[in-house]
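Meet today's protein:

…
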Amino acid sequence: MSDPSQPTLLLTEIDHVAIAVNDLEAAIAYYSDTFGATVDHREVVESDGVEEALLKVADSYVQLLTPTRDDSPVAKYLERKGQGLHHIGYRVADCSVALEAVKAQGHRVIDESPRPGSRGTTVAFVHPKDAFGTLIELVQE
């Protein structure tokens, strides 16, 4: 029996850890040469102004991101903070339900409603200022 005072667990597993890089080919080569990782999926996400390479690690991914235009959020991130950890993506059963739960708790979000993500997913971002400095992506497969 569940405890009604406890929130429902919305995060089902880690989908990916995203790393912002200046040179996508060099980053892919590093992970390939160093760890034997190979690209499982590659895509340009025009709406976000990024190109991504997903490297499969067990049931999750390392997502390497590079900007395709100067005004993309990843380009701005690289300019302010340099290369490195950009965000973490958590899988959820229902992105709308998870996003509404975050908003119901009074937390800030970047996306007011879910939107299409890469590889056919539905995604929404939670603002890092309310998540202890971590940009969180909710990912529904």
Q: What stands out?
A: The chain has a mean pLDDT of 95.
